[in-house]
Every structure is written in structure tokens, then in C-alpha cells.
Amino acid sequence: MLNNKTIGVLALQGAFIEHIHMLESLGATCYEIRQLSDLTIRKYDGIVLPGGESTTQTNLLKKLDIFDYLQKLISDGLPVLATCAGAILLADNICDNTTEALHPGHLQTLPVTIRRNAYGRQLGSFTTTSDFGPIKNVSMTFIRAPYFNSIESPDVKVLSTVDDHVVAVRYQNQVALSFHPEVTEDTRIHEYFLQEVC
User: Fold this and answer.
1) What is the CATH number of the domain that holds 109?
2) 1: in domain
3) Domain span holding position 22
4) Any catalytic annotation for residue 30?
């Protein structure tokens, strides 16, 4: 057991339960964020924004009046681990895999441009191994994943690349990944989040 930190996991849509299982296996206490009161009346050390569909997640955040409060929390420094669609939620700008045209991001707390569905429908999903910052040989599962097309601030630290594409970054207390560490048996990225970010 690593610690007794409390982590809120956005549970409106997408693959959130795997994050909860992995974090709890490391000693964290987790709860699901489903309404504004889950953020306003609870105490927590960090949050997870899971994979799923970023536009759907944004629409639900706005419908439930969570969006503005969550955006401010992250901007003010709340630690966040964001995977796949979660990383798209954070990015300042978004482009897709067929054009260089930029669109404004959703929460816009992470100064990067991210490319949605970057690997296209043909590859769909794949697994590879790469380093993550100081952590060697991390198993990475990509599911119709984005990658970080450009970095807009020198304060954004690249943590991982795959085939010359940036697939993991850290900016202040935000850690954003193109891949899904929660679907593997490797807990080291979640350990990093709990120990080094929260």
C-alpha cells in the first residue's frame, strides 16, 4: 500500500472503473465524480479524467454544471491524471488526423495542441513499450488514440514518445497520456501520479 490519498475519478462516460481498481490496489481511496457536489463538498488530493469520448464528456460536464468549477480547480493546481480523451479535454487546441486546422480545446488548461484519432481507424488500437520519464519499459495500450501534435509552452515536459510522436506530457500538476495505463497490469504510472504529482 503506497498511501491513503483520496482521488476523484470522473465517472460520466468512458473507462473510469479500471482507474479506480488500479488506484485502490495501490492504497488510494477513490470516489466517482458524477455531480458538482462531488467536487464541492468532498476533500481530495487529485482527480482522474479517463478515456471515452471527449465531446460527450464536455457536454455532460456543462449540462451538470461541473465544467467551470473543474476548469478552475485544474487551473489552480489540482493534480490531474488524464488518459486519451481526458488528455483531449485538457488541451488548449485540437486538430484531427485529416487536417492541420486548429479548433479550441475544451478545458484549455494544458498548453499543447493534440491530434484526435491520430493513429486513424486502420490501426485502431495497439500495444507497445516505451519509457515514461524515469520509468523504463512501460506497457502502453493505444485505443484510437491521440498524440500531442505540438507543445506550446517550455514548461510542458515530454514524458514519453512513440515513433517520434509525443504521447505523454506533464505541465505543473497535470499529467496527460495518449494511452491507457489502466488496462494493463503495470501500476507504475498510477504510482507516479500518487507519489510525485499528488
Assistant:
1) 3.40.50.880
2) no
3) 6-197
4) no
